[in-house]
Amino acid sequence: MLARTCLRSARSVAPVRNVASKTASRSASTSSSSEGAASSFTMTVAGSAATAVAVGSIAWYFHLFGQEAYAMTPAEEGLHPTSYPWEHLKWNKTFDHQALRRGFQVYREVCASCHSLNRVAWHALVGATHTVDEAKTMAEEHEYDTEPNDEGEIEKRAGKLSDPLPSPYKNDEAARAANSGALPPDLSLIVKARHGGCDYLFDLLTGYPEEPPAGAAVPAGLNFNPYFPGTGIAMARQLYDGLVEYEDGTPATASQMAKDVVEFLNWSAEPEMDERKKMGMKVVVVSTVLFALSVWVKRYKWSPIKTRKIVYNPPVKH
Amino acid sequence: MAGLASTIYNSLIRKNTVFLTTIFASAFVFELGFDSISNRVWDSFNQGRQWKDIRHKYVQAEEDEE
């Protein structure tokens, strides 16, 4: 079918080409040159129109659906976070585990009263921020439900390393009720769950102005924060200088605490990062060496082919 | 030099079974060496940042009890 169509179109195009190239045409020919020009126009009309429609419809489609839609005002978008030179985000750097330990302290003493961290179990802290004994002691300070006993009663027991960090509220509804309708999100994966990651979180925590700027509308019960999309956030400013007392003597300024807790939350979202980066370094080293080797081996194997000479000896005429 | 190469060839590569053993053994040895070197490089990139660098500050109490 397709072949036949092609043949037919080739046949119909042929006389046009003859005329266009002004090859000598015999007077006996059925087409005079002026007729030929006219027919050349009519013959390309369909193709040109189809092309125009194709281009036009694609352009229209991209105009409608291809561009990013900015339906929000800048205030609804939120201020874009500053990009900070996070040491732990460099390709060859691990988390600073001293900072993680401080960040956990901030989480535990400040954020944990509203935010859960339920993807992190106590044992995950072991060998990352705390020793086994420290983690066990902290776990035991909290009560957990047991499995139902023979009477179907659920009792309480002390926490174990395998338990997740405790949530401050029984369920999301209780959390909303306690925070005038706003749910404090679980922080385990928050660094991955927000555009801007660490930068956004740091700016959010430290970006509360003393007073909302003139003209800004802050609904009752909300706080002004330019970095939060919409600028009205249900969480009030949490970090003030000297709020916690670091055991390692680091001055607990608001920005220091924000930096530490953000790094800790990055760890909780990517606890495998240290190992992953180390493995990545090894993979890159080994595969670049193997690549170089393979290039040399290829040259070696091809050298007889590349250097051969093909000689043509014409047959001798007798 | 040629003598050394032919010794290596004859003793490690010539017989297929021996060659296979050579490959496995050298992969094992290479992995050990490569890992320990790259771990050392990694630790020098990250001096003082990893848990093992700060662990001693927090395990003291535990060791005293024992």
TrEMBL record, chain A:
Superkingdom of the organism of origin:
Eukaryota
Q: Which InterPro entries match?
A: Cyt_c-like_dom, Cyt_c-like_dom_sf, Cyt_c1, Cyt_c1_TM_anchor_C
What Pfam families does the record tag this protein with? Cytochrom_C1 (PF02167)
- The top EC class, named as a word, is translocase
GO BP of this protein? mitochondrial electron transport, ubiquinol to cytochrome c
- How and how many cofactors are bound, per the record note? Binds 1 heme c group covalently per subunit.
Q: What is its EC number?
A: 7.1.1.8
Task: List localization entries.
Answer: Mitochondrion inner membrane
Q: Which residues bind heme c?
A: C111, C114, H115, M235
- Alphabetical keyword list: Electron transport, Heme, Iron, Membrane, Metal-binding, Mitochondrion, Mitochondrion inner membrane, Respiratory chain, Translocase, Transmembrane, Transmembrane helix, Transport
Mainly localized where? mitochondrion
Report domain Cytochrome c positions: 98-251
Q: Which reaction does it catalyse?
A: a quinol + 2 Fe(III)-[cytochrome c](out) = a quinone + 2 Fe(II)-[cytochrome c](out) + 2 H(+)(out)
PANTHER family referenced in this protein's UniProt entry, alphabetically: CYTOCHROME C1, CYTOCHROME C1, HEME PROTEIN, MITOCHONDRIAL
Family to which the UniProt record says this protein belongs:
Belongs to the cytochrome c family.
The identity of this protein, by name, is quinol--cytochrome-c reductase
UniProt source species? Xylona heveae (strain CBS 132557 / TC161)
TrEMBL record, chain B:
Q: Give the family from UniProt.
A: Belongs to the UQCR10/QCR9 family.
Look up keyword Electron transport and say if it applies: yes
- List, alphabetically, the InterPro entries matched: QCR9, QCR9_sf
Location of this chain's protein in the cell: Mitochondrion inner membrane
Instruction: Show the Gene3D superfamilies listed in the entry.
Output: Cytochrome b-c1 complex subunit 9
Domain of life according to the entry: Eukaryota
Q: Mainly localized where?
A: mitochondrion
UniProt entry keywords in alphabetical sequence: Electron transport, Membrane, Mitochondrion, Mitochondrion inner membrane, Respiratory chain, Transmembrane, Transmembrane helix, Transport
Query: By its UniProt entry, which PANTHER family does this protein fall under?
Result: CYTOCHROME B-C1 COMPLEX SUBUNIT 9, UBIQUINOL-CYTOCHROME C REDUCTASE COMPLEX, SUBUNIT X
User: What cellular-component terms does GO give this entry?
Assistant: mitochondrial inner membrane; respiratory chain complex III
Put simply, this protein is called Complex III subunit 9
Among the record's GO biological process terms, what is one? mitochondrial electron transport, ubiquinol to cytochrome c
Q: What is the lineage of its organism?
A: Eukaryota, Fungi, Dikarya, Ascomycota, Pezizomycotina
Subunit = Component of the ubiquinol-cytochrome c oxidoreductase (cytochrome b-c1 complex, complex III, CIII), a multisubunit enzyme composed of 3 respiratory subunits cytochrome b, cytochrome c1 and Rieske protein, 2 core protein subunits, and additional low-molecular weight protein subunits.
Q: How does it sit in the membrane?
A: Single-pass membrane protein
